[in-house]
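$ fold --in a.seq
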Amino acid sequence: MRYCVLINGNSIKVRQYASESDYSAEVEQTFEKFKQGAVKNYAVKFRSEAEMNHVEAQILDAVVRLYPDIFGHLDQYCEEHRDYVDEKIGAFDREIQFYLSYLEFIAVFKRAGLNFCYPRMSEDHKEIYNYDGFDLALANKLRLENAMVVCNDFFLNGQERIFIITGPNQGGKTTFARAFGQIHYLASLGCPVPGRDAQLFLFDRLFTHFEQEENLANLRGKLQDDLVRMREILKQATPNSIIIMNEVFTSTALKDAIFLIRKVMEQIMQLDALCACVTFLDELASLSETTVSMVSTIVPENPALRTYKVIRKHADGLAYAISIAEKYRLTYDALKERIVS
């Protein structure tokens, strides 16, 4: 099948081939006698990619109109053999692309010295651990900024099921909770996970409750929205689920927040589900033998600086808010000085 493409400025026309001469060969022959050694090559190199740009697509549409019978037979052939690919082979073809892309993605982090491992998985035992794990999404952002990635460890032994994560703001608490969820989710897909060694639980469903913008369409306040979302999670969760919560019930009074989160934690403990809970309520850290206190730490010499290390220790109730206020000159004395000036 041959055709001609006529280009005139920004206009392109396509018509059937009419045995025209190849003028490019004639032009080369005519100017051959003027050639004086090596010269710059102005020949256009065609792309080798399979995808077409919009101009090529329109040219193809015009060719289809020129040869409707040929393309009609081609359409009929495709329709008759549309199911020729075995379903399992088709699924493998789609899924292997994800796994190969993931391995290519994490290779960048490995070259930077970060660890990945294939975890041991269990559907029965909830004694889990991960050493030198990290939030993969944050690590990718930090890599692009040439910043250091801080790794953390976690483990649960015996009857321990729930991480209660407390500590100063901007200290890595939410990042730790995200990493906990990411690592389990990636493991459930059969992927190597961030960390040098890991043993994880093969969950049935992973539920998350992170803060989100209020939806003006449903006319619910933030507290009611938190309650509705938590109710749906607890209705669907099973003993084999993982639940991740990030600072729920922050919009209500302290006494009410403690009452509500205790009720939620009691149900999670009854389920015997794994959970990571970021909270400003230190009281939860010693709720029962199933809870483990994790605390984000600061640089002792300068409480305004965060280490982003989250370690197992008793909640100390220190938010170091005064150091943040001093850093941004928001203390009473600083504000008074600025107002006067």
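$ fold --in b.seq
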Amino acid sequence: MQRAVDGDALAVAGGGAIVPGSAVARVVAAGAPLFVPDLGGGDRPRRCFVAPLRGRTGANGALALERDGDVGGDERRALLALAAHVGLALENARLAARQRRFAEELGEKVAAATRQVMENDRMKSDFVAIASHELRTPLTALQGFSELLATRRFAPSEIGRLGAIMCAETERLGRIVSDFLDLSRLERGLAPPLRRVRVDAAVVVADAVEVLRRARITHELELECDSPLPPVDADPDALDRVVKNLVSNAVKYSPAGSRVRVTARPLQAPPAVEIVVEDEGPGIAEVDLARIFEPYYRAPGAARTAGGVGLGLAVVKSLVDAHGGTIRAENVSPHGTRMTLILPAVP
């Protein structure tokens, strides 16, 4: 921008960068005004006066005046005062912009936290409804069969069949209650109680698969276990729960007649035991993979596919973490889900 001042041309301009070694660069570095008697390049002396624009952290810019002719003391003082006002205005603008950014970021965080709270409330409401149903199912079976046994006479073989059903429903009820207790510990930040001993993982895995194989006639359960496996320092009951939960989930979310494959093998560096459960189901959506180990979380559509309260994998994760192990979920090609559990071996 140009305009006439006492017959002289006054140029006011801004630049995107400061030229190293220039008068402006020296003023910004030193934080003090600078007067140059002659910039050279003309018949008459071309004088320059540069005043720093100061902020909270020092000079962050400069106000420069160039003219042919003298730059008197009054003009220099006026430029210093103007530079002080401009520096203050720039600092205020910078603080206002920072405050706006902070307010926007805070608003986004509050909105995200609100959405998360609402999502947690929704999941807990769904959990209460599903849990009530899951508890009612075995209780109804136990009540019905016990009433039959109390009021009617049955052949010994029929009594044995009804007793086996009641035993299975009692075990199911026990697993649900155990999951509730483990969830309570999780929400209080407590590790699950463990009675750790030196365990042969191959025996625990084989026993768990064999129990489920006898109970599940709708799927083909395959077990491939390298021998020998190094021992692990684990709670055998907890490890049994982990394996049964993973295999039961694989059966639950894969079509009848498909194969569920369980493998166990040693790892060398560092020494560990890897247990893999792989099914031939539809797999898990990528957006849900990162959340399936959260309490209450169930992938959209999971409730229509199979029953459950959405606690099993959260409990599995807490038990694995308590053992110092890791667990991850991934999809396999062409379809299916793979759960990989790694437990450190005893040195």
